[in-house]
Design brief:
mainly beta; single chain; 3 helices; about 210 residues; Trefoil (Acidic Fibroblast Growth Factor, subunit A)
C-alpha cells in the first residue's frame, strides 16, 4: 500500500499506474467557476459558465508521470470521450471534432495533456503544442448557451492559465490518499507558496465555490 498523507496530487500522479487515477473538479483562479463540457454546443466545447455552479467531475487518466488525458465523468454519449486540443479550430478544447462532429473516443496526440502541479492543488495544463490552457477573456454565445471557452494558446502562467484541482476521489487500489481541505487559510497558503496573488473578492469567491459541494 502506497500512503500519500499530505494531499499532494503530484505524488498521486507519480504513484499511480497508467489509466484512470482520480476524479476531480477543475476551477479557474479567475473565480469564474469550474470547467465543464456543454454537450453539442460548439462541438461540445470545454467552457466555464459562471451562472452554473453545479459539480462537474473530470476523470484524470495517467499517460505517464507528466501527462494525462481528461474525460468528463458524465459523458455526452454512452462511451468515454476525451478533451482534445483542436489545431483545426483555433486550439480550442472540445470533445467533438470540428466540422465532422465525430466524438473523440481515443487518446492520440491531440488528447495528451501535460500536467504540472505547483502546490498540492494548483496546476498548469498544457496541450501538445506546449501552450498553457487559457481561459478566454470574453464569453462565447451560441444557440442557447454562453460560456468562457478554453484554448491551448497561453505563453505566460498568469491568472487566466492557473487552475485549482479539487479532487473528489482517488481511483486506484493500493494507494491510500489523504485529501487536503479547501479552507480559506489552506487555499491562500498554497497560492502564496506559488507566488500567486488574488484580490480578496476573487479569493473569497474561489473558496466559496470549492466548498459549495
Amino acid at each position: 500500500m502506497i500512503k500519500i498523507s499530505n494531499g499532494s496530487l503530484s505524488e498521486l500522479l507519480k504513484a499511480a499506474a497508467t489509466g484512470p487515477f482520480m476524479q476531480a473538479e477543475i476551477y479557474s483562479l479567475t473565480g469564474l467557476g469550474n470547467v465543464r463540457v456543454t454537450c453539442n454546443w460548439a462541438y461540445s466545447a470545454l467552457n466555464i459558465d459562471p451562472s452554473n455552479g453545479a459539480e462537474f467531475l473530470w476523470q484524470f487518466n495517467k499517460v505517464d508521470d507528466n501527462n494525462i488525458s481528461l474525460s468528463p465523468v458524465s459523458s455526452c454519449i454512452d462511451k468515454t470521450i476525451y478533451a482534445s486540443v483542436r489545431d483545426d479550430n483555433g486550439y480550442y478544447l472540445k470533445v467533438q471534432a470540428p466540422f465532422s462532429a465525430d466524438w473523440i473516443t481515443e487518446v492520440r496526440r491531440d488528447e495528451i495533456i501535460a500536467l504540472k502541479m505547483h502546490d498540492l492543488n494548483v496546476a498548469e495544463l498544457k496541450g501538445f503544442n506546449g501552450a498553457f490552457f487559457f481561459l478566454d477573456n470574453g464569453m462565447s454565445s451560441y444557440q442557447n448557451h454562453s460560456g468562457y471557452c478554453i484554448r491551448s494558446i497561453g505563453r505566460t502562467f498568469d491568472q487566466n492559465m492557473q487552475w485549482y484541482l479539487k479532487i473528489k476521489r482517488s481511483l486506484q487500489d493500493g494507494i491510500d490518499f489523504s485529501y487536503s481541505d479547501h479552507s480559506l487559510g489552506t487555499v491562500k497558503n498554497q497560492l502564496d507558496n506559488c507566488g500567486i496573488q488574488l484580490d480578496d473578492a476573487t479569493l473569497n469567491t474561489l473558496v466559496t465555490q470549492l466548498n459549495s459541494h
